[in-house]
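Workshop exercise sheet. Pairs work together: one partner reads the sequence aloud, the other fills in the structure field after running the prediction. Swap roles for the next sheet.
Pair: D.N. / O.F.
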Amino acid sequence: MTSLRTAIARLRGIFGGDRADARIDEEIAAHLEMLAAEFESRGMSPREARLAARREFGGVAQMRENWREQRGLPFLDALRQDLRYARAQMRKHPGFAVTAILTLALGIGANAIVYQVLESVVYRPLPVRAPRQLQLLEISEDGKQKVGDAMQQDLSYPQFRELAARQNLAESLIASGTSMLPSGEGKNAEKLTITLVSGNYFAGLGAGVAVGRALTPADDRPGAPPVAVLSPRFWEKRFGNRPEALGQTLALGGAAVTVVGVADARFYGLTLGWEPDAWIPAALQPQVLRNDYLRDNENYWLNVIARLKPGVTPERAQASLDAIYRSLPGTAHRHLTLRPGYRGLTLMRDGTELIGTALMALVSVVLLIACCNLANLVLGRGAARMHEIGVRLAMGAGRGRIVRQLLTECLALAAAGTLAALALAAWAWPELTRILELPFPGGRLEWRTCLFAAAIAGIAACIFGLAPALTNTRLDLLTALQANRRTYSSGRATHRLGRLLIAAQIAVSVVLVYGAGVLGRSLWNLQHSDVGFRTERLLIATFAWDQEAASAGEFENDPFAGPLLDRLNHLPGVVSAALCAFGPLGNSTATGPLSTPDHPSKAANDVLIVPVSPGYFETMGIRILRGRGISDAERAGSHNVAVLGETEARRLFGSADPVGRLVSASPTFKDEDAVEVVGVARDIRFSGPHSGAAALYYVPLAQAHVPVTSIAVRTAGDPDRAASAVRRVLREMAPGREIAKIEPVAETVEGQLVNDYLLAFSTSGFSLLALALTALGIYGVIAYAMVGRTREIGIRLALGAPRISVARMVAREYFPLVGASAAVGVVVAVGTARLARGMVFGVAPNDYLTLAGAAAVLAVVAVLAGWLPARRASRMDPIVALREE
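Structure field:
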């Protein structure tokens, strides 16, 4: 208890500083007066009494310091003094303080923003109970991940039910499948995103509800009342967050469901950026979609996630579940695998992780360069403060005490830089989320981001403060006391450290400049890559995929296809038009096997099936290499024909001419399904500039029994001008079809390069910042060195040395360092480029032209940065220089 009271009293002494100092001064004065009065009573004069009192009392300053140590906590008290001194130094040198704070604000702020993107999109687990226990079930076939073209929709409903009933290593297996359904009646009914889930979905995930109740296994059984749980976003949009939404009826497809709950505000489902409007039991699937998938063992429409029991390893669970899966019908050549599911499905995360990690590496490198630059500035300031440090050491201050003082100054700068960085990030974050359309509500920085910023600020302070502090306190006292503000010699250790920091900056800057060059060339290659068809003056309109109508077969042999094609071809400004299903740059694809009598198909050889109308190849600008394209003669019931892409033709027939040969859309060739190949078309990049040549199988739209999903229109002029006319025709001819987008192909391709633009421009900006910081660092080091050697330069000039000799001296001393550092940077750049090979297009890792350009840019920057202080030093008046000493 006594120790606690002592600690409290010491804390009061620290935070009551000025008042406590006044009290101790009053007590010391009172003691001196009492002693003086006593000596006067012994017959001394007042002056002699005061002198005797001081001799008797002892040193006043020592007594005051001893009392301060007893009444406070020495470390905190010293810290308070150091912070006061740091504040005074910042006021005394505002230019240095502002430069350091702004440099740190840019570096730390950029790191904070990129960290928040990564933490929110990539690394944050699902907002559910114990997310690390979740494992995603996926299917591989013949070593190839994913069956068909479904995104992680790997299991049929009968397979899911069988697995759930027979497994015993998971607390629960949770199934979900997403679909678009109309809400309301008529052709203008609102389309809602609905997730059909197993009854244990909410309980198994551990996701709560804000209002009402969650779905239960009792809701997921035949004959149960149809119910739904709304998402918070849809609850606000449709019902204005009113509790009266419970009990309301919502029309979904062919069923009317009753709202029984609203999900918790933090829960968005299993996929970040893809929050459904509502969750309904999977048992309602036949009612809302009108086709029964619950008994179809070959319709893979479910994502399945398992919550493992405590103590069960993923390897053990995978072996058990795979054995059960392999015993089910239709699973030949397939295996069930598990992967961590704590982040849910990865619709957004996969691409964002690579981009975010690259940006984090970039901003970290820029912060490192900034720290090296600040370290050089601190070294220079330390050399200028040599006399001050020498005096403090001569008066008895320990080296550790001075190092702590210098580090405190750096920490104060880092704290100010962090506050400025967080202010900058808080301002930029909402704008960034709006521009990039990131799915983050609120637009606020999170506490984890603030902690991260504080942590990297502390690390940065240690990087740019510790080594200079240790170096600046390792000095000769006699030299330090003789030094003045104008002329000084900072010592070999300071020069070595300064050169090492400059070398690191140059090497890292070479890497950044090279990376900017490589990514810039990659972006140029993508912009000018040949996608296999002519993108200029080409307009593509895409219909939204309607699962309900497609399941009911409403779109087979679209009756409006012929009249629509005729209307489009007669529009003013339209050169030609064509229709297709599952075409390039669309929102849906179809894949399947393709075989010949000599070449059976495997899962790895599945082709993209593209049903097209006559005139499609001419409209798209796809060159026919052999034979012909699809003509008007190909109608329903006529002879079945097809056109192959050149890659698929080469795989099936080698160097032989495929025209006139037969193929079959089945794993093994069947005579009854035989289709005659009438032509070979040039390969195209089906999904855009990033994709490779796809295996393509074109068939007549009239013979395919599939819906029209996109329309291609070749225009005589600007395709944007024709877009409104095309939209009007589509609404008139197909009023029940929702138009997803109408956009010139050039804009679609440009939109696919957003990440490439982001990386290229970010790297370019960061490399320019790194060059500026490096130039400033080189300039500062040489400038400080020239000031420290003022007397030497003055003597040289006074003895008749030519002024150019000063520049030669700088060149001999620093330019070999620049060359060696640039060479190290080139080696590191080549190694880094090999690691980032998947992020560039059409650029080799050892791109010597770009490497030479990066090294040349650094050489020019280094020469300019070094020439300016050398030129100023060579022009000094030797008489003035010697007088300063």
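Discussion prompt: Confidence is low (pLDDT under 50) at residues 146-152, 485-489. What would you look at next?
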